[in-house]
Amino acid sequence: MCFYLNFGCLWCFVGACSASCPNDCSGHGKCEKGKCICQQDFTGSDCSMRFPFPTECSQELLNGALHSGEVDIYPQGREGPAVRVYCDMETNGGGWTVFQRRMNGKTDFYRTWNEYSTGFGNISEEFWLGIELLHNLTSVGPVSLRVDMRSGNDTAFAHYANFSVGSEEKHYTLTLSGYSGNAGDSMRYHNGRPFSARDKNPDPLGIHCSRSYMGVIFIYSFNNNPLYYLWIDWKGKDSSIPFTEMKFRPSTFSPATHG
């Protein structure tokens, strides 16, 4: 005789019953009486989640999100608010948190310091995530930067193994090193330089990049003009680039082993 102990019991043997677990605990736990007992570093009802409060997109990828799109992250962890971001889960292994995109010229990037601090635009189209958030996200550990560009049928990218943005007190100074890619190292001129906006220029050299190019960014070889950006080492100083996307992920992330 079989005595069913709970509604989760699916079959029985020798007078006892066995309950199933969701997704067989995803291979990361042990099923006991219909409940997953998760291994270390995994959580959730089916043990599929490593990071219940992901702080950036590589953690969301490790949680099993394999498609690019909008997700909520928690830069301050469990205690902080959610922030909506766009994750690139496909380029070079995925796990990239996108913080800037230009694609059609519909969004005005000639903005004030406060607007660049808090962010603007539509994260599924053209946008700037916010440099204060970018400072926070790049300060918790070593991260790498990738810039993808497209002009007509031509594509190029620049990768920097080390990337960070200073605090507002330090004028969001850019720090980067370790270039690789096929676009050319146009950001080399701007390592150690402060951020500037149309209404604020803390550059000690007095070069107001955002006014000169009707836009704002860390650099003057990748500056925003009324429509698009320039990347001098790839297309020269007279050719703007219609599509640009800037993104980061932890430097320790390995595309070959994220699964």
Give a structural overview.
The chain is mostly beta strands. The protein has 2 domains: 1-49, no CATH class; 52-250, Alpha-Beta Complex (Gamma Fibrinogen, Chain A, domain 1). 10% of the residues lie in helices and 31% in strands. It has helices spanning 57-62, 113-118, 131-137, 209-212, 232-235; strands spanning 9-13, 16-19, 29-32, 35-38, 69-73, 83-88, 96-102, 120-121, 127-128, 143-151, 154-165, 174-181, 229-230, 240-241, 243-250. The strands form 4 sheets. Strands 5, 6, 7, 8, 9, 10, 11, 12 and 15 form a 9-stranded antiparallel β-sheet that branches. The chain starts with 8 loop residues before the first strand and ends in a 9-residue tail after the last strand. The relative contact order is 0.13. Mean pLDDT is 80; it is low at 1-17 and 207-226. It holds the Pfam family Fibrinogen_C. InterPro entries: Fibrinogen-like_C (IPR036056), Fibrinogen_a/b/g_C_1 (IPR014716), Fibrinogen_a/b/g_C_dom (IPR002181), Fibrinogen_C-term_domain (IPR050373). It comes from Periophthalmus magnuspinnatus.
Provide tags for this entry:
Fibrinogen_C-term_domain, elongated, Fibrinogen C-terminal domain-containing protein, Gamma Fibrinogen, Chain A, domain 1, two-stranded antiparallel ribbon, 9-stranded antiparallel beta sheet, Fibrinogen-like_C, mainly beta, 259 residues
